[in-house]
Amino acid sequence: MNSSQDELFKEIFEKKNQINSDTFTITRFLLLALNSYFIDGLQFRELKSALKISDGNLASNINYLIRMGYINKNDMEFDNKKLHYYTITDKGKQELTKILDWTDLIKKLLEEINDE
């Protein structure tokens, strides 16, 4: 391993401490990413279809992200039905950015290792 790779390892371990480890699950990461991409928000059924997980699993992960302030639950009425949709907050965008930056460091390290 060279000094560049040593520095990347060090940075990866330092930055991991900046990420909320409770948020960094695949489901929660994907919920943040989907809500970041679809800026107008997504309904529960759309999230369930995209993630292919159970109602209970999705609900518990959504509720956690709401409690953390990473996503908002919004209400709207459509055809006399009350619908809920979820949007990412600024705090959620910041957390998603931390996670993406961290994974970019890992990718960079792997590229360096593979180039040897």
CATH class: Mainly Alpha
Main sheet summary: 3 strands, antiparallel
What's the alpha carbon Rg, rounded to whole Å? 17 Å
**Spatial sequence of strands, sheet with the most strands:** 1-3-2
Task: Give the low-confidence spans.
Answer: none
- What is the helical fraction, as a range of percent? 55-70%
Estimate what percentage of residues fall within beta strands: 15-25%
Mean pLDDT: 90
Class based on secondary structure composition and strand pairing: alpha+beta
Q: How many individual domains?
A: 1
Inertia-based shape: elongated
By CATH, the topology is Arc Repressor Mutant, subunit A
According to CATH, the homologous superfamily is Winged helix-like DNA-binding domain superfamily/Winged helix DNA-binding domain
SSE string, helices as H and strands as E: HHEHHEEH
Question: Strands, helices and their partners?
Answer:
Layout: H1 3-16, H2 26-37, E1 42-43, H3 44-51, H4 55-67, E2 71-78, E3 81-88, H5 90-115
Antiparallel strand pairs: 1-3, 2-3
Helix pairs in contact: 1-5, 2-5
